[in-house]
Design brief:
single chain, alpha/beta, Rossmann fold, about 40% helix, globular, Non-heme chloroperoxidase, AB_hydrolase_1, AB_hydrolase, AB_hydrolase_fold
Length: about 280
């Protein structure tokens, strides 16, 4: 299987599909999943003539289950190692949830300075900051994230059923069509990864202030968010992010959940493609 070794010696698994000379798109997955979460989008863009790349974050999926480096700085540096190894140029970077934070930091600190990025898309993404602080009083209280850590430490296998069965895809809403295979696939991806990486990743996605990352991004950036996102409230993320981006476009979706890329792929894929082609 294809791996790249980072500067600190971590093996990162990646997928690279399609013609090497086609326009590249690189995907950044959410917590606690893997690059498999992008299968629908990768196949869609592959059919539309693009080269598609995705990697498993350190401690996730098939990448090395190392003890350290489970923070946004290392996430972005690992993504940079993949992009540099594959010599990606003029790429569109698409990040979902925690992957949106990773993509934002990568674009700001590596991609744009190296001239490798054409556009960015942040979907249901965690920036600029999820945690409630004095400077961010609209954020979520620390107790929310402490509860996630406790549930993971007590019974990760059950926790990784409860999240997709409930709020992640909006399956807890009245009248929702529940897809058991989607739930099982979420569980499968989560349980492939390291409990320690996932535990420490909660701090990374909740406490990392990415205000300066967003300010530093100059390429056209599309922000997409479901208005019924029970994981990353759109008013605290998308509406703040769009004010910080130099060249941002915002689109929100009434009634759609955090996992809308999967359960509403027909809608999202069309909008992603339109922006990539624009």
């Amino acid at each position: 299987m294809p791996y790249v070794t980072t500067r600190d010696g971590v093996e990162i698994f990646y997928k690279d599909w399609g013609p090497q000379d086609a326009p590249p798109i690189m995907f950044h997955h959410g917590w606690p999943l893997s690059s498999d979460d992008w299968d629908t989008q990768m196949l869609f863009f592959l059919r539309n003539g693009y080269r598609v790349v995705a990697h498993d974050r350190r401690g996730h999926g098939r990448s090395a289950q190392v003890s350290d480096g489970h923070d946004m700085d290392h996430y972005a540096a690992d993504a940079a190692a993949v992009a540099e190894h594959l010599a990606l140029s003029g790429a569109v970077h698409i990040g979902h949830s925690t992957g949106g934070g990773e993509a934002a930091r990568y674009v700001a600190r590596f991609g744009e300075p190296q001239g490798r990025v054409a556009k960015a898309i942040l979907v249901s993404a965690v920036p600029p900051l999820m945690l409630r602080t004095e400077a961010n009083p609209e954020g979520l209280p620390r107790a929310v994230f402490d509860g996630l850590r406790q549930a993971l430490a007590d019974n990760r296998a059950q926790f990784y059923l409860d999240v997709p069965t409930g709020p992640f895809y909006g399956f807890n809403r009245a009248g929702a069509t529940v897809h058991p295979g989607v739930i099982q696939n979420w569980w499968r991806q989560g349980m492939m990864g390291s409990a320690k990486a996932h535990y420490e990743g909660i701090k990374a996605f909740s406490e990392t202030d990415q205000t300066e990352d967003l300010k530093a991004i100059g390429v056209p950036t599309l922000v997409l968010h479901g208005e019924d996102d029970q994981i990353v409230p759109y008013a605290d993320a998308a509406l703040k992010s769009i004010k910080l981006l130099a060249s941002g476009t915002l689109k929100t979706y009434p009634g759609l959940p955090h996992g809308m890329l999967t359960v509403n792929a027909d809608v999202l894929n069309a909008d992603l493609l339109a922006f990539v082609r624009s």
